[in-house]
Amino acid sequence: MTGAAVALPHFEALADLPRELKADGSVVTAADRAVESAIRDVLAAARPTDAVLGEEEGQTGASGRRWIIDPIDGTALFVAGDNRWLILIALEEDGEVTTAVAAHPAQGSLWWATRGGGAFEGRIVGGRVVAETPVHVSAGADTVAGSRLGVVPEEWNRELVAPLKELTPALHWPIHPALMIARGDLDLAVQTGGQIWDFASTSLIVREAGGAYSGIDGRPQPGPGASVYARSDALRQAALEAMAVVSGSR
Description:
This protein is α+β, with helices and mostly antiparallel strands. The chain has two domains: 2-134, 2-Layer Sandwich (Fructose-1,6-Bisphosphatase, Chain A, domain 1); 149-247, D-Maltodextrin-Binding Protein, domain 2 (3-Layer(aba) Sandwich). 28% of the residues lie in helices and 30% in strands. It contains seven helices and 14 strands. The chain has helices at residues 2-11, 30-46, 75-79, 162-165, 177-183, 196-208, 233-247, and strands spanning 19-21, 27-29, 51-54, 58-60, 65-73, 86-93, 96-104, 109-114, 118-125, 128-134, 149-152, 188-191, 212-215, 227-230. The strands form three sheets. An eight-stranded mixed β-sheet has the order 4-3-5-6-7-8-9-10, with helices on both faces. The radius of gyration is 17 Å and the shape is globular. The N and C termini lie far apart (44 Å).
């Protein structure tokens, strides 16, 4: 809740929000830095011996327990006034993500999961989580053709996802496609780039909802590069095979 409380006032006053470009050309704002700083303050008070890795401040500390923070996932959406941006927080223990939270603060929704404990969706009302609901992926055929596909970002001029476009159309996503898969609203999603903080939280939520996740190279752990989410492991494999023509893994 702390991150949302810091981010929302910035989102409501975008005209006055300082922003700049990083070395990689992506946008960063004062809101990104303020949200990460606020989350770090909470973690420092509650878990002072844990390590923290954040997109804006890098890693601090060394421990078998590491918090992974993306203070504003989708900063380009944020500065455009698009409410689909998220705050992502995950806990990694001995190299495995065990706890995950994904919030759409501007939409008032929260998603979370624990390893072996399932995945859930709730609403944020008055700073409290209400309407807690277990989520689960949908059933269906394990073929890319006919599947409900989401791509992050919503661009089709990317060579990586072109083979999927030939098999099934991409759908507009009102919330992050990984969360839509967890809730049964999509079957397959590709995020065409990112770092560990982009995937740590959403990968666990999808898996705990009964789905599958991997990097484009098939690695099971979240990390840099493109990633695939699917409602089944067989569908994930089918998507990787379809994209192998471009990725060079075939």
